[in-house]
Amino acid sequence: MEYQLNLGIWNQVFAVPTAIVDQHLKLAGAAQLKVLLWFLRHAGEPISTEQMSSALMMHEADVKDSLQYWVQTGVIVLRENQLIPVPVTENTRSPEPEFSEHPAVELSAKSDSGISKNPEPQQETAGTVPAPVKPVTKSRALSRPEKPDQKYITRRIMEDESIAFLMQSADELYGRMTGNNDKATLLLIHDYDGLPVEVIIMLMQYAFSIGKGNMRYIEKMAINWADKEINTLEAAELMIKKLTESNSAAKTVQRIIGADDHSPTEKEKELADTWLNRWQFSPEMIRAAYETCVDTKGKYIPNYTGTILANWYKKGYTTVEQTKNEKAPSRQNKKESYAATYDISEYEKTSVIDEEW
Questions:
Q1: Pair 199, 308 in one domain
Q2: Average pLDDT for residues 171-177, to the nearest whole number?
Q3: Residue 77, class by beta-carbon neighbours within 10 Å (0-12 exposed, 13-18 middle, 19+ buried)?
Q4: Alpha carbon separation from 66 to 96, 155, 257, 313 (Å, rounded)
Q5: Which residues face 100 on adjacent strands?
Q6: 310 CB neighbour count, 10 Å cutoff
Q7: Residue 7 counted as domain residue
Q8: How far apart are CA 123 and CA 125, in angstroms?
Q9: Helices and strands (DSSP H and E) totals, the chain
Q10: Which residues sit opposite 76 in a β-bridge?
Q11: Is the pLDDT of residue 336 over 70?
Q12: Which residue range(s) make up the domain with 268?
């Protein structure tokens, strides 16, 4: 009689280094783990990134980025156009990856609130990675530093769990693995602009909620927040509330003047927020000011409409009847009417977001 042990799917197995679980499971993304498992499964076979892309239903660029992660961390070695697992002997440990320094970012790194970091610089010894340094708060340079390279990004992801969480959150928001350029931008926002991870994530979530999830918009918005010291969750919540109210006010004004197909500028959002939320004008009053502007100027001019409303606000008008005998402000008294309650020049200097956005 013959006996056979049937292990089912366990009849065919392949080895996965313990270091993958011990060191990389919490840092590597889903795409990177998928690529590594597929790579190990087909060890010894000729493999192309195009083949992996088709098998894993991933973009070929994402496959290359994922493989590059394992090369940078020392799990896989690129040698003579061949990707091979790092050989491990009884007397060797899992290799430590080598990283290039990025002084422009390293010198200006800032710690997250709630994240414990060494307050003083540590002397670098051979074979060790220096801990991030918390710098003395200082004014930023006029020009932004060069974006960090992939090796530096990988290093920061491995040494700082909060940075790893930031990159993972970005991947989830975009629904794909973000490229090195996007990762570099996020790291620059954190290290150079000084925004904590939780604030950056909140900022990204807001940008996506209004359909502006491109990294250029996120970076500009982050720079603006950094300049205004919006670097806590409480401050970020207040700013998002203000921006949300401005957006809502702008949509209301668009409906009032019949311009639903128009995309309001940031300045128009600020004006609408002032008219509705600060001065508490009714839709009828805003419509009357709009019609006065069109009758006088032949077209809708937001700043001029604001001048009319500022004049009415100064006089305490709350109904359209009170404005019947009012004349449209002339070029001479335009500045005066604004000066009392609404300094447009000051507004332009303190606009929440640059007009070009």
A1: no
A2: 90
A3: middle
A4: 18, 15, 51, 60
A5: none
A6: 25
A7: no
A8: 6
A9: 16, 2
A10: 85
A11: no
A12: 252-348
Q: Tell me what pLDDT residue 239 has.
A: 93
User: What's the rounded mean pLDDT across residues 78-92?
Assistant: 55
Residue-level pLDDT at 343: 46
Please check whether residues 265 and 337 belong to one and the same domain: yes
Tokens of 236: 């970020």
Q: Are residues 267 and 188 in the same domain?
A: no
How many distinct structural domains can be found in the chain? 3
Instruction: Indicate whether 150 and 198 sit together in one domain.
Output: yes
Tell me, rounded to whole angstroms, the distance of Cα 209 from its chain centroid: 12
Task: Give residue 56's identity as a one-letter amino acid code.
Answer: L
Nearest to 132 by CA among 149, 115, 145: 115
Say how many residues make up the chain.
357
Q: Indicate if 176 and 262 belong to the same structural domain.
A: no
Whether 277 and 344 map to the same domain: the answer is yes
Q: Is the pLDDT score of 304 beyond 70?
A: yes
Residue with tokens 């290093």: 155
Residue 231 or residue 326, greater confidence: 231
pLDDT band at residue 205 using 50, 70 and 90 as cut-offs: very high
Is position 128 within any domain? no
Place of tokens 């069109």: 294
Residue 246 maps to a domain: no
pTM as predicted: 0.52
Question: Is 94 a residue whose pLDDT tops 50?
Answer: no
**Is 241 domain-assigned?**
no
